[in-house]
Write a sequence for this structure.
């Protein structure tokens, strides 16, 4: 959700019907602004909360003889979650897909090279 896009509420094409409508619009604008501010203040989970979530997920995955681990993409330094087979230690699935992150890194390199040539 784009929070900045909803910080301003405008009503067009509706006839003005006095103070009651203006007051309702004002209250709606205040409610939206308050919700946007609350969304901005939402905190990130603590390392302990993340560790608990990982343990819970690993408990769920244990039945499938797999576990999750975290890794950083080498070029983007983007966090990836990997599902790993316990028997073979093979990565079964990566979120987001490593190929997608590789593509994003390559596009970034190409944009940088293009800007260097023009600049």
């Amino acid at each position: 959700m784009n929070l900045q896009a909803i910080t301003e509420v405008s009503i067009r094409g509706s006839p003005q019907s006095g103070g009651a409508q203006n007051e309702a619009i004002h209250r709606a604008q205040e409610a939206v602004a308050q919700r946007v501010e609350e969304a901005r203040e939402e905190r990130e989970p603590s390392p302990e909360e993340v560790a608990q979530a990982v343990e819970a997920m690993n408990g769920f995955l244990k039945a499938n003889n797999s576990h999750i681990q975290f890794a950083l993409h080498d070029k983007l330094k983007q966090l990836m979650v990997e599902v790993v087979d316990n028997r073979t230690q093979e990565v079964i699935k990566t979120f987001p897909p490593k190929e997608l992150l590789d593509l994003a890194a390559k596009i970034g390199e190409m944009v940088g090279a293009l800007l260097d040539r023009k600049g």
User: Anything to note?
Assistant: The longest strand covers residues 66-72.
